[in-house]
Specification:
Elements (H helix, E strand, L loop, with lengths): L8 H8 L6 E5 L11 E3 L9 H9 L4 E7 H6 L4 H9 L5 E5 L1 H7 L5 E4 L9 E5 L4
Catalytic activity: beta-D-ribopyranose = beta-D-ribofuranose
Subcellular location: Cytoplasm
Protein name: D-ribose pyranase
């Protein structure tokens, strides 16, 4: 058995395949997934799993160098923003790049994988840029 909290085999494998600079997007239930971008759909029902829990579990296995965050997320302040800000303050999210929501959606086309959560609060999305552990 794995020792980390991440039990989803497809998601764990996707993180294991990341290279330096690759992007993973964690999105709410309404975030569009561009054609050709692999999607790991975790959504079960509204709110399950939520954005903040998904982010924390992904970070248990992923080394992050930086993150993409839509300015609209800061303006609307969905409940997951508290988790983002706490993780950012703790140095878990690396350097912040603020972009427009449309720019974040465009970045999804470059993502190695997009994770769909059951989160139903708009602008509960983040792009994680992979770092290295050495």
């Amino acid at each position: 058995m794995k020792k980390t909290p991440l039990l989803n085999a497809a998601l764990s494998a996707a993180i294991a395949r990341l290279g330096h600079g690759d992007i993973i997007v964690i999105g709410d239930a309404g975030m569009p997934v561009p054609p050709g971008t692999p999607c790991i759909d975790l959504a079960l029902t509204a709110g399950v799993p939520d954005f903040a829990t998904t982010l924390q579990v992904v970070l248990s296995e992923m080394q992050v160098q930086g993150h993409l965050l839509a300015r609209e997320t800061l303006e609307v302040a969905p409940s997951g923003l508290g988790a983002i800000e706490a993780l950012y303050a703790a140095g878990e999210l690396g350097e912040r790049q603020l972009v427009s929501h449309d720019e974040l959606k465009a970045a999804c086309a470059k993502a190695r994988v997009q994770i769909r959560t059951g989160e139903c609060r708009p602008y509960s999305n983040i792009g994680l840029i992979a770092g290295v552990t050495f």
